[in-house]
Amino acid sequence: MLDDSTTPQRLYVDGYKLSDEMLSAGTLPQLGGARMCSVHAKGNCLDPIIASVTAGRRYRHVLGFEAGERARATKDAVFNTERRTGWYPLLEWGWDRTRCTDFIAEVTGRRWSKSACGFCPFAMATASGRHALVERYRREPHAGAQALFLEFVARSLNERQTLIAGGSAAELVDAAGLTEVQAHYEALLADKPHAVYEVRRLTRRSSKRTDGRGITARSVRAVAHGTREQMTRQLAAQPGDRHDGPDGITRHVLRARGTELPSLEHFYVVCPAVVEDKARPGFDEWWQEATSDAVLF
Ligand code: SF4
Question: For the stretch 89-112, what's the b/e string if a residue is b when 16 or more beta carbons lie within 10 angstroms of its beta carbon?
């Protein structure tokens, strides 16, 4: 954020960061549903500023959805109010990204690259997006390392959580031979205090359909803290069967994820100690209910 002036001199790099939120929750931006990452990282930060600048007056909120992004504009217009009117000039002009970057290049002499989090799963969802990201990681190995770090933390707690559906950012970096990114990532990992986490995950039966899936809830709790080496030794002393996953992560598994409902998963894993202990209210009762003999026969 630049300082509050028409001639800013300072850039404040601290404050809310989506990556911090993701790490403390041990999760990743979700491809499905509403883009909550964007709501948190942009909407929640901008809304108070807009409210302060417009001070109750009517205003147009200009958004740069490009030609071809009419659906995004339609979705955004749902948030119009008596005061706020979304305005999408690029759609009116028929300008797409290429037209915009050409214009910027004409005016400034520079070609502007797309701005996005370095760990954006939406940017990784297409071949051209992944190609652009690899080029970005080549220029900014720290951004690549951070993406790998986020993915590793989330994946440690849930083997299915990766930044690329059916693959992973780790595989992308590996295939592209980005050794500098991998070196930064290893250094980042080695530098962090670690913890042994106990992870329990539960998918309930739907309350509406007896054979349907209900809510999935997770409980994450650190049971020991120390260096990576200490925690690796500590994990060996935890109960459960040792399982070396295809993701290269070792877990001590008490209950493997099942397909029957309620579905339960319970394991210990070593992970950088960046994730906060968390369980949704009522989790322990649900867990007890689901693990009781009466339910499991
Ligand atoms: S750039 Fe991607 S990850 Fe970052 S807030 Fe936007 S949609 Fe979410």
Answer: ebbeeebeeeebeeeeeeeeeeee
pLDDT in tens, 234-248: 999 999 999 999 989
pTM of this prediction? 0.86
The residue contributing the CA closest to ligand 1 atom 7 is 38
Look up tokens 């001639």; give the residue: 7
- Strand 84-87 to 250-255 pairing: unpaired
Contact 78, 50 (CB under 8 A): no
Domain residue limits, the chain: 30-115, 117-191, 192-296
CA of 227 relative to ligand 1 center, distance in Å:
32
Q: Which of 120, 146, 162 to mutate to test the pocket of ligand 1 (most atoms within 8 A of CB)?
A: 120
Contacts (Cβ under 8 Å, ≥6 apart) of 140: 118
